[in-house]
Amino acid sequence: MSKEAFEIGQVLGRGGYGTVYLARDGRTAELVAIKQFHNKGASVDRKALKEQAIWQGLDHPNIVRYKGSFLNEYHTLSLVVEYVDGWSLAEHLAQFPAFPENLVADITRQVLCGLEYLHANGVTHRDLKPANVLVSQGGHVKICDFGVSTSVDVRTLTQGAHLYGTPHYIAPEMVENRRPLTTSLDIWSLGCSVLELMTGRRPYHELSAMQTLFRMVQDRHPPIPPELSPAARDFLACCWVWDPRQRPSAAALKAHPFLNLTFQE
């Protein structure tokens, strides 16, 4: 691939390491998304290569599809991925205060399908949150952004006692540097995301990032609102089991009664 093959359009999003653009593939007229990494030196180049190595090996309906890559005029890697014609869950939450439980259950089921696939292939996302889950206009849910992900098949660049992810969604074993870190990280983050979808507020929303990390370790899990249904409360409790070895897998959570709410009403 080359940059000349694409007509670059509007900005879809910006992050600490890059900017995502809408683009049209001049060869096929297909709309795609292009993640262009900021030109900030060798560390960003290594990060881009790692994300490419992880993303290009994935193929699942609930994962944004990798399509290719090219070097731009600054010799910086750009990733070409599937364009999802919709918003992230975070953007939806900015428009609506909260979602009904049956809708959250349907979204969660699709996210779990994507996580089950990732985990079966040795990939841990490590930054699962509403901003990294896209929903198409047809209601298809897709996980995106593998910038801090790890894979058993890709040499990691993020060793040591560092925090990766977003504070209000990080699992306690990451905070306490309990090794080894496993795919259970994503299950904890899923619970935090589900809570936010149902209530419009992320865990410890009233606290700063650092305060949140200390409170989470102290409390052992975020507060579970009593007004939620019994099934929803139990689902959150399952996601927030303190010991990651006892936390249920994505495959196991797909059988949780909370997901049956999808078919009610």
Automatic annotation (TrEMBL):
Superkingdom as given in the UniProt entry: Eukaryota
Keyword Metal-binding in record: no
Keywords: ATP-binding, Kinase, Nucleotide-binding, Serine/threonine-protein kinase, Transferase
Residues that coordinate or bind ATP: 35
The name this protein goes by in its record: Protein kinase domain-containing protein
Coiled coil regions in record: none
PANTHER family in alphabetical order: MITOGEN-ACTIVATED PROTEIN KINASE KINASE KINASE 19-RELATED, SERINE/THREONINE PROTEIN KINASE
Signal peptide boundaries: none
Domain Protein kinase: 6-259
GO molecular function: ATP binding; protein serine/threonine kinase activity
Alphabetical list of SMART domains matching this protein: S_TKc
Native species: Porphyra umbilicalis
SUPFAM superfamilies documented for this protein: Protein kinase-like (PK-like) (SSF56112)
Keyword Transferase: yes
Protein family according to the UniProt entry: Belongs to the protein kinase superfamily.
